[in-house]
Amino acid sequence: MLPGLVLEFYEEKNVMEYMKCESSDDTKLRLVGEIALGLKYLHQQRPPVIHGDLRGANVLVDSKGHAIVADYGLALIMGSSEFTSIKTAGTCRWTAPEIMNPPNNGDVPLPQFTFKSDIFSYAMTVFEQPFNEKKSDGNVIFAILNGSRPVLPESIESKADLANLVRQSWSQNADQRPTARQICRRLRLTTWYGDWMDTLRGYLPL
Length: 206
Known about the structure:
Layout: H1 15-21, H2 25-43, E1 49-50, E2 59-61, E3 67-69, E4 76-77, H3 97-100, H4 115-125, H5 137-145, H6 154-157, H7 160-169, H8 180-187, H9 191-197
Helix pairs in contact: 2-4, 2-8
């Protein structure tokens, strides 16, 4: 029997569509935190779940304005001996460099999504459309593989803790990226996040 995920049905918009109607920096930053909580929840499951295709189009916003990490088409259920996932790449603008150009060690024939590749995708998801100025996917892939990253918007750059966290999360070196749990802990240290964190305690396990 194949393991699977049963998800609630949502009729609301994804976060990219939602942000076209909601320009508040506070709302954007709140959603950044909620996406991190969702990723942490997946990574701490037993067995752990790697999303594999985290991006704005795969984050829904429910009727109360909360972010819901969704679309597990590339999700990997770790530690399952009964299930082998087809590890094709997600959308390149959100894909970690080690997935697009995996090390050729002869042991792993296909790119392997990991917790750290999810973290890279999370950092890119902070942007509504990373590398929007680059129309060609080939140019995007070239930029990511060469260490180029989008310019942080003022709403993030003005918050040093958050800007540093994003830069670490999209590090070219996967080992230098924080875990989802570390991201949530660090976000709780910032004033904008602490103001509403208590309201989320019953929403997702912390």
